[in-house]
Fold:
Amino acid sequence: MNHDGPATLHGRTLAAAEVAGDSNAIVGTSRTFTYQGLVKHAREMVAPLRSAGAGPGRTVGVIVDRDPLSIVKLLAVNLAGGAWVPIAADLPASRRDFILADAGVVAVVEAGSSGTPVPVSDPGRRRAVPDDTAYVIYTSGSTGRPKGCLISHRNVSAFLDGMRDIVRVDATDRWLLTSSLAFDASVWETWGPLTTGGTLVAPDGAETSTPRGFREVVARHAISVLSQVPSVLRMNLIGAGAGEAWPALRYLCSVGEALQPDAVSQVWERLADTDPIVLNLYGPTETTVFVTCQVVERDHLDSDASSAIGRPFGRAEISIRDESLSAVPDGETGEIVVGGPTVGGGYLNRPGLTRERFVPIGGAVHYRTGDLGRRRPDGSVEYLGRADQQVKIRGFRVELGEIESTIRQIPGIAAAGALLVRTGAGEFLVACLVADESAPAEAEIRRFVGGRLPAYMCPGRYAFVPALPRTHSGKLDRSQLPAVFHAGFGATRSAAPRAAERTTE
Structure:
């Protein structure tokens, strides 16, 4: 389907606002903006932003909470012609400072402020065009440096057009903001409604901090479009039932990690009069939020459903390729490679990594996801895990190497190996440490790591071990880490003598 309209994110929002008028655009716990109010407040921020340096080709750091005013600030940055760089308000100061410096922001808009920017450099002049960057979202980097993904207005417009072909929404829909505005799933949750005249409900964290509170918000606000990381959805359904219902829910989008069939079953089984269309959505930040969709059917909700990511939508292209980038036959395993108009502009200030991951195929740039997959007989794609050391936890992409690099900065830590452990209680990041007598106590290690990494990247458990397993080539043998962790967890540091690191095949 062809969706004609403005080709910039703010242009699409303004067009929706012209039609929606005084309808509610964003409903928060203590503040609500109509579409007229949203545009008015955003436009009032434009002149100060431009004076502070915002403009095409310029980035503006926005310290974000999950609240209506943060969204107004993002719109204002785009109206000023700039690209927003969202930074969670609770991010450790060292990581925040790195992102601001790496992104080369010309101004910073602090959390809680009315939108007054702190200038950093000179202003730009021209208006933004579709090929200009709309936003830069940072993801975990294996070298210890987060990497900024460049997404243009053209990219995000193509994404929104494609989503409108599979999620038929209009001005009557009510959406719930569940993701951090620094996480790319929020692009769908926020701009999906605001470019179609719908209402975005953005409660503060206290309202949705418990499973019952979350379910009450969904019911009270008659949410019709809901996106959830599967592990979070499962948690939010604890205690559900006994007359609870989400009758308005039309779409339930599973995002951020592999689908958990039992969590979806609980929605259908525990909540009366709740029968949404369930979509399993897949895509990396580098290719603008999502690129494939699988409609989840009740009759096919088995263990295989978790790996079925469906087919590309919109104008996205998916191919399965080997290490030389040759297409592999259907049914064979290879790397998932994405092409089409949603492929972003690479990594900010990382030309080498950009050349490695954004590659020319058939005259167009494609993105190598690092995800393994294969094409099924029906043409859909099956996700088979990561080809490298990147994992997902609660929807966030995490490079294990970044955690390890941070831990190794601690004096007395000779080596570190991080891993994701799955138990019946959920998923947890843990780390194995090789430490000498000068290393600090575990409490100090936790403080050090917590001061440099966001909470979702901080290991929940540490095991002091005599050595990390290595392959004959000297690389960390990650396949052996789980056994090493379980053997070392609970051991005292004196019971883990320093020894030569053991080698495996």
Q: What stands out?
A: The first helix runs from residue 9 to 20. The mean pLDDT is 88. DSSP finds 13 helices and 27 strands in the chain. Residues 208 and 214 are 4 Å apart (CA to CA).
